[in-house]
């Protein structure tokens, strides 16, 4: 069994990226599970807070989910042509020495995906992530990237997937990433 954790980089209740992460879970092929994580409760990174109190509980909880996963899918929004600060902030906390000796991400397989109401489906945000993934020493699955554009038509208000063409991409995407994890 391959365990994938899909992390949504949006806190929004009706987030398209959380909906996408859930859709991966719903379309996982046999032999693969996709769990969904969000970033709720993670404070802004503050070195003084870290020195006084250590790693916040919400960060430690997400770190445990990541450590238990064979691979990660980052379901990332795009803000101003880059990754959202909320998502980068969480990764910054998770990269600290108080979390798995600063090696939580080293060698961990990772795939990028994202959804946007615009026409380019987070392409620039996904490109922006690449330098961070390299800094973290992650194993990036470069063959597979999924960009969901016009997300307002792809998902309904409850986050249910309406678009058959997008739905048809999800199973092969998760299967491809699973094969990459196994290599
Ligand atoms: C500050 C801000 C900047 C944004 N910049 C972009 C952008 O550069 N490209 C884009 O496609 N969408 C942009 N958007 C729109 C987001 O894609 C949209 O809000 C999307 O719904 C966010 O993801 P979510 O649904 O998972 O919360 C921006 C939104 C915000 C709030």
Automatic annotation (TrEMBL):
Gene Ontology molecular function, alphabetical: FMN binding; oxidoreductase activity
Which residue range or ranges hold the NADPH-dependent FMN reductase-like domain?
2-151
Question: For this UniProt entry, what's an example GO CC term?
Answer: cytosol
Enumerate the InterPro entries for this protein.
Flavoprotein-like_sf, FMN_Rdtase-like_dom, NAD(P)H-dep_reductase
Question: Which top-rank group of organisms is this from?
Answer: Bacteria
Pfam families named in the record: FMN_red
SUPFAM superfamilies, alphabetically? Flavoproteins
Protein name, per record: NADPH-dependent FMN reductase
Question: Which organism is this protein's natural source?
Answer: Zavarzinia aquatilis
Output the lineage of the source organism: Bacteria, Pseudomonadati, Pseudomonadota, Alphaproteobacteria, Rhodospirillales
């Amino acid at each position: 069994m391959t365990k994938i954790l899909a992390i949504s980089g949006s806190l929004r209740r009706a987030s398209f990226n959380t909906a996408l992460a859930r859709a991966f879970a719903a379309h996982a092929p046999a032999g693969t599970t996709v769990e969904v994580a969000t970033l709720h409760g993670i404070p802004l990174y503050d070195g003084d807070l870290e020195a006084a109190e250590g790693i916040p509980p919400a960060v430690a909880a997400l770190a445990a989910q990541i450590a238990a996963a064979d691979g990660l899918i980052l379901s990332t929004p795009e803000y101003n042509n880059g990754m959202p600060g909320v998502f980068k902030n969480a990764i910054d906390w998770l990269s600290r020495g108080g979390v798995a000796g600063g090696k939580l991400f080293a060698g961990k397989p990772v795939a990028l995906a994202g959804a946007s109401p615009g026409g380019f489906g987070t392409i620039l945000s996904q490109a922006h992530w690449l330098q961070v993934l390299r800094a973290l020493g992650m194993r990036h699955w470069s063959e597979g990237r999924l960009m969901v554009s016009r997300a307002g038509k792809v998902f309904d208000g409850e986050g249910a997937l309406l678009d058959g063409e997008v739905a048809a991409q999800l199973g092969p995407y998760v299967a491809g990433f699973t094969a990459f994890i196994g290599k």
